[in-house]
Amino acid sequence: MLSFSSADINLWVAGLLWPLTRILALLASAPLFGNSAVPASVKVSLGTLLAMVIAPVVPPQPAADPLSLAGLLIVVQEMLIGLAMGFSIRIVFAAVEMAGEISSLTMGLGFATFFDPNTQGRSSAISQFLALVATMLFLAVNAHLVLLSALVESFYSLPVSASPVYGGGFKQLADWGGRIFSTGVQLSLPIVAALLITNVALGILTRAAPQLNLFGIGFPITLGVGLLVVAMTLPYLATPVQNWFLDGIERARLMPRTWSQRQNNAPPAPPVQGRRPAGLSVVP
């Protein structure tokens, strides 16, 4: 007859609960997985399935009661690690959405805003369109699979531990968040430059022919030029956005390593530049 003690049950529960916490936190914050259109039951089911696959092969976990203070602190720590890894990819989508906001304001589509269920706010039409393009590219290059691979790798680079992590990884995430503004401006620069030339031309035309109604012809011309430039630049978005996905996944890989090295009092490893994660496809 089999008999189990409470310590054995606590060990089994903790062995599944702690990896599940990190996985669910990443699924909640990462793009595509954390989309509000995906039902919560699907996210929990996917996270539970991944936890059941990953938990038996992760390094040994601390023998702590999951209902104790130490166990709850481990849960909070695992949740923060998963959220940080998911946000490192979400920042790329935020940069693309910011480029759409800048383009919309320059084109005169600042009034064409819609409710965005992901951010619980308002976003412009061009911003949502570019976000959809980035999502399709995210799936086309298998970045969602590479992100899950980085999640599995994090359990080896930063095993579940009762030792607290330090703020080095969060500082990397904050520094990476600055790319939202620089990347958004770079991505919208062709549209802004074309519309600037268009507005200068309209100003010269109005000066030469004062009888023209600038408000009557300016808006459709500006809107038409903006949409034309957006259509012309779409084929060239694959390479830069794919490189940003590469950088975001590398940040997600490096943050657990940084925390692990801080715990072991080792110097942090420098960021890896120019290396493509295994499994990331190339869009021709």
Automatic annotation (TrEMBL):
The chain crosses the membrane at residues 12-33, 40-58, 70-93, 129-152, 187-205, 212-238. It comes from the Bacteria. Pfam families: Bac_export_1 (PF01311). Keywords: Bacterial flagellum, Cell membrane, Cell projection, Cilium, Flagellum, Membrane, Transmembrane, Transmembrane helix. One of its GO terms (cellular component) is bacterial-type flagellum basal body. It is a multi-pass membrane protein. Residues 259-284 are annotated as: Disordered. It is found in: Cell membrane; Bacterial flagellum basal body. One of its GO terms (biological process) is bacterial-type flagellum assembly. InterPro entries: FliR, T3SS_IM_R. Its main location: membrane. Belongs to the FliR/MopE/SpaR family. Role in flagellar biosynthesis. This is Flagellar biosynthetic protein FliR. It comes from Duganella fentianensis.
